[in-house]
Design a protein that fits this description.
Helix content: 40-55%
Number of domains: 1
Strand order of the largest sheet: 1-2-3-4
Number of strands: 4
Oligomer: single chain
Length: 105
């Protein structure tokens, strides 16, 4: 999988990058043949003001299907990433199932 991780106003540690890549492999590995590229953007929306402001934008570029874009905002980056990846996995599973249903009909 081709994975790009970018951060805006956040520090991307090696630990966080490793966590993201491991979670992506675990949740999306079975759909690897459908995924051309994964783009993840992490941002601290409110900056130093605090609050629930860590946002993860995950975009799956898919072969022969429309792209999937998921945004999730949580208190920590790891929570936002985990939830965005879980939502993207469910959305991709539905999309692949629908495509297989159409092709078998």
């Amino acid at each position: 999988m081709n994975i790009e991780i970018h951060g805006r106003h956040v520090e991307l540690s090696q630990t966080l990058k490793a966590h993201i890549e491991q979670k992506l492999q675990f949740c999306l590995n079975r759909f690897e043949q459908h995924i051309c590229k994964i783009y993840i953007s992490l941002a601290d929306v409110n900056g130093p003001r605090g609050g629930v402001d860590k946002q993860c934008t995950l975009q799956l570029f898919l072969a022969n299907m429309n792209d999937i874009v998921i945004k999730d905002t949580q208190a920590t980056l790891s929570l936002a990433v985990d939830r965005a990846i879980q939502r993207a996995s469910r959305s991709l599973a539905r999309k692949v199932d629908r495509q297989q249903d159409r092709s078998s009909s």
